Amino acid sequence: MTHQTSDLEAQLDALRQEGQQAIATAETLEQLDQLRVKYLGKKGQLSQALGGMGKLPPEERPRIGALTNEVKEALQNDLDTKRTALQAAQIQAQLEAETLDVTMPGMYRPQGRMHPLNSTIDRALDIFTGLGYTVAQGPEMETDYYNFEALNFQPDHPARDMQDTLYLTDGNLLRTHTSTVQIRYMEENDPPIRVAVPGRVYRRDTVDATHSAVFHQIEILAVDEGLTFSDLRGTIKVFLEAMFGDVPIRFRPSFFPFTEPSAEVDVQWKGRWLEVLGCGMVDPNVLKAVGYDPEVYTGFAAGFGVERLAMVLHQIDDIRRLYNSDLRFLRQF
Ligand code: 2U9
User: Fold this and answer.
1) What's the predicted TM-score (pTM) here?
2) What positions does the domain Aminoacyl-transfer RNA synthetases class-II family profile occupy (predicted)?
3) Which one of 97, 129, 157 terminates a domain?
């Protein structure tokens, strides 16, 4: 064996050992690729070592060639094995990083619910639609005509004082009752009519446990041939029984500009009479104002304060609780 041959053999052995060690300790696929280029690439160490082959005696070349192939195969083999291992590790790491922990607590989403005023309105309207009434709504800003004049409030009648409200600079006002909507409805529809109107209303009132300057009403109106006070009384009785159960009720005479005769209705509640609504037969002047013939048609109407109904239903002690959005209160409904 020549001197060059044993040199080359030693060099190839060292290359194998060094390469195998480097491959074994590679930590990433990038590092592994760099090692492949370094050892097996065109200008890699193995190619360079083989550059010395030309100087060998021809009879020794096959042996060195075989050794070279052996080293090449060994390194290639290690590279393949290591690549498979690193790829598997990479997938495993990715799987672990992206694992969904189904035992983790969910995100808290607060659950809203119906406000007691809205559920009271819904409940009352369910009863009236069951009796054949249509639901109608209208604007909160109104003209003097719809709020007062068409409803038989004479310009200087003291009843206007009891329904003082906010007047806008253009002469319009914030409605004091939802009766404005029934006037508009009658202008658009011929009798017979049955209409129920929920809505927000405004009055100049000093706020206390049972009064609010902004509150809600539901008003009903029926106009037909031959309607009498008995029809009104029967309707009120059916409504209050559906709303509160079989409670004793009482009609007291009252006055409203838009109804004649008029009454207020009390419900027996906790051993005393509690006023829950006003009602009456529609004043002929109101029918005339919308072009209905009061000699042919009669009507009855009633108005309920929604807050009052809700307070009776849920035994709420102060009307202001319905407005100040205290969740400790609202969560009870
Ligand atoms: C038309 C004609 C008549 C509706 C009526 C009342 C009596 C009444 C109050 C109840 C409590 C208002 O919210 S409250 O303060 N309402 O007393 N409302 S009769 O009468 C009408 C409605 C429309 C065209």
Assistant:
1) 0.69
2) 126-332
3) 97
